[in-house]
Amino acid sequence: MPDTASQSSGRLFGSMLPSRGIHHLALTTEDMKMTTDFLVNVIGMPLVHAMKVPPGVGTGPGNRGNPPYEEIRHYFFDMGNDSLLAYFEIPKGEKKQSDRDEIGGMQHCAFTVTPTQLEALRRRLENAGVDYDGPVDILPGLVSMYFKDPNGVRMEACCQPSKGDTPDVIGSVLQTKEQARAELASTGATEQWVQQVIENLPD
Fold it and tell me: What does the alpha-carbon distance between residue 133 and residue 102 come to, in Å, rounded to a whole number?
């Protein structure tokens, strides 16, 4: 990684960024009590909002992309750094278990953790009898631990040990123009396109 890898996304990309990060990630379950128990009592993510979707939002004209069921549970949990993990409760038996590798599916959900949080999570999972893999090296300076929620959703706790309590998420994966160029060129793209998408990367 270059010396500039520790730059924050704000300093690197400035006003071009389209958002400030994740507001919430919405997943599905068919047992909200089971899911709430896992997130609150095993993982340690506090419940911050418990509701039922208002009438007409599931199948009526007010539907804006919600699951097509009326008045289902929709709970929100604090996953840290002012971002939320949300679940919709789908009626039992209405949907099959998903394959995380299907096109358009969610392969996994990764959380940023400090070394202290990673070890605390490992102990929580172990004490609850939840299987996990890792910690394993995934990229230079990055280690991760993998586990599944009760619905089979694959989750990842991603840690930068050398950063202690101040992880640098963008910096941990940031490439130079030349590092990214080789892979982008392998897609068959034009040089003009490659130049366009690496414009904001450091030299």
Answer: 22
